[in-house]
Design a protein that fits this description.
Blueprint lengths: L15 E4 L6 E4 L18 E7 L2 H4 L3 H6 L6 H8 L5 E7 L12 H14 L4 E4 L4 H14 L6 E5 L4 H11 L3 E5 L4 H13 L7 E4 L9 H17 L10 E3 L1 H4 L3 H4 L11 H19 L3 E4 L2 H14 L1
Parallel strand pairs: 3-4, 3-10, 4-5, 5-6, 6-7, 7-8, 9-10
Antiparallel strand pairs: 1-2
Helix pairs in contact: 3-4, 4-5, 5-6, 11-12
Length: about 325
């Protein structure tokens, strides 16, 4: 008896969120099937890749592959322009980790100047990541949202502690898109989405960031959360979980020992940069297969591999 494929298409769908303006604007979300289930229905929008550029990149991107790719770039805006050349990249992600008061403590004014300089040079949509300090990020997102008004950027992220400030300034005052960040728990993700919409932020302006970790580091919590969110959004038509998901892969994978331990300390592990690339690929692939609508990556080799995966499976 021949096999007959039974297609499963849900009545519900993930919200579509548009980032950027003009010809380079991108849409994330919008699908009504599980990830890569193109045999059920064609994808409305393929998963997207954003390339992370830290404000400390000129000092910290020392791996040979990264250094070779950005050779000749003497500023963050030059690196952002170069990053647009990477095949498969749809967004430029500015990571202001240098703003951390416990680190470099770059001023908000410095960060805003960097963001404006990048925005003047690039044509792709811009995503802004903060330094994980609740108070500093709230101020940083507000000022950058004002400076880049009309650019339709995404700020990552509003959290339970600062969602009112971030939401009011970025989304309500300047009509930017806002990420809702929670920690590997479907109930926390839903609660944050709910209070943000109650604040007046349109559901179509919210992107979820429900947690991430490098593969092998409590990663089962990440995957199970993504799976449960997608199942509830599509199968149970839960409108408070139908926001598209973006996952910052690079910030997790390039800080673990598999990516940082020098080969000289453990030769059996092999080249550290290659390990980091493989960690980034593995983590991104698993997150995309489990529900991420977009991932944020760093290394050109890893981006190339994931871009090929998306093209062949979507």
């Amino acid at each position: 008896m021949p096999y007959q494929l039974k297609k499963k298409v849900y009545n519900a769908s993930i919200n579509t969120v548009e980032l950027g303006t003009g010809d380079k604007a991108v849409k994330i979300g919008g699908n009504n099937t599980l990830p890569f289930y193109s045999f059920d229905a064609p994808a409305e929008n393929k998963q997207k890749i954003g390339v992370e550029i830290s404000d400390l990149a000129l000092e910290t991107y020392t791996q040979k592959g990264l250094a070779d790719f950005y050779a000749g770039c003497d500023s963050i805006e030059a690196m952002a322009v170069k990053a647009q050349e990477l095949p498969g990249v749809s967004m430029i992600v500015l990571h202001f980790e240098g703003a951390d008061p416990n680190g470099r403590n770059r001023s908000v004014e410095e960060c805003v100047a960097t963001a404006k300089a990048v925005a003047e040079k690039v044509t792709m949509p811009i995503v802004v990541m903060g330094c994980k300090n609740v108070e500093k990020d709230a101020e940083l997102f507000a000022k950058i949202s004002e400076a880049l008004a009309g650019k339709n950027i995404l700020v990552l992220s509003a959290r339970q502690e600062n969602y009112k400030t971030v939401g009011a300034s970025a989304a309500l005052a300047y009509n930017q898109k806002v990420g809702a960040e929670s920690a590997d728990d479907i109930n926390l993700a839903k609660q944050l989405n709910t209070v943000m919409t109650q604040l007046g932020i349109p559901a179509g302006s919210i992107v979820m960031q429900p947690g991430c970790a490098a593969a092998g580091y409590g990663f089962e919590y990440v995957i199970s959360t993504l799976d449960r969110i997608k199942a509830a959004a599509l199968g149970a038509s839960d409108t408070q979980l139908q926001m598209p998901i973006i996952t910052p892969i690079s910030t997790e994978t390039w800080g673990v020992k598999e990516s940082t331990l020098p080969e000289s300390e453990d030769p059996e592990w092999g080249d550290a940069e290659e390990r980091g690339i493989q960690m980034e690929i593995t983590t991104a692939a698993a997150c995309l297969a489990s529900g991420s609508d977009a991932v944020i990556m760093r290394h050109p080799a890893a981006i190339a591999a994931i871009s090929q995966m998306i093209d062949e499976l979507a």
